[in-house]
Design a protein that fits this description.
The structure is a single chain. Strands 1, 2, 3, 4, 5, 6, 7, 8, 9, 10, 11, 12 and 13 form a 13-stranded parallel sheet that branches. This protein starts with 37 loop residues before the first strand and ends in a 7-residue tail after the last strand. The protein has a domain of 99 residues. The chain has 142 residues and is an all-beta fold. 21% of the residues are buried.
Length: 142
């Protein structure tokens, strides 16, 4: 007996001519967020050898050597007197030293680079200052 004295309806049998409702599609996990880069702030001075397994952003002053297995960016306030090695290098500030990249080197309009570039792809924006030599040959061992 149903609520308030009525009869409880019997469950209906599934209609064999109707397709069964589709199961909800599995939801793909959200891609992992890209980690934040290692940032050397505008008020930071670093002297020595910086070796990173992550993206690096230089807004301060660096002297020595900088190596990153990922990307390296010298921001507009960045001042670098060092050899730079990374998969890709983007310069907006000032670099005195050689830039070696396995993928590309980009000099943005505000960039000032006094050194050599070695990378398979080189981009130099109008307004950038570049004094050095460029080599776009394949990296050794490629």
């Amino acid at each position: 007996m149903g609520l308030f004295g009525g009869k409880t309806p019997e469950p209906k049998a599934a209609d064999p001519t109707r397709p069964a409702p589709a199961a909800a599609a599995p939801v793909a996990p959200a891609p992992a967020p890209r980690p934040q880069p290692c940032v050397l702030g505008a008020q930071t001075t670093f002297k020595g050898e910086l070796i990173a397994e992550e993206d690096v952003l230089v807004e301060g002053t660096v002297e020595g050597l900088v190596k990153s297995s990922r990307s390296l960016r010298v921001g507009a306030t960045g001042r670098v007197k060092a050899a730079l090695h990374a998969s890709s290098i983007v310069v907006s500030g000032e670099v005195t030293g050689d830039c070696t990249a396995s993928e590309r080197v980009e000099l943005q309009a505000t960039a000032r680079l006094f050194g050599n570039i070695r990378a398979p792809r080189i981009v130099i924006a109008e307004g950038a200052l570049f004094k050095g030599q460029s080599d776009m040959s394949a990296p050794a061992g490629a």
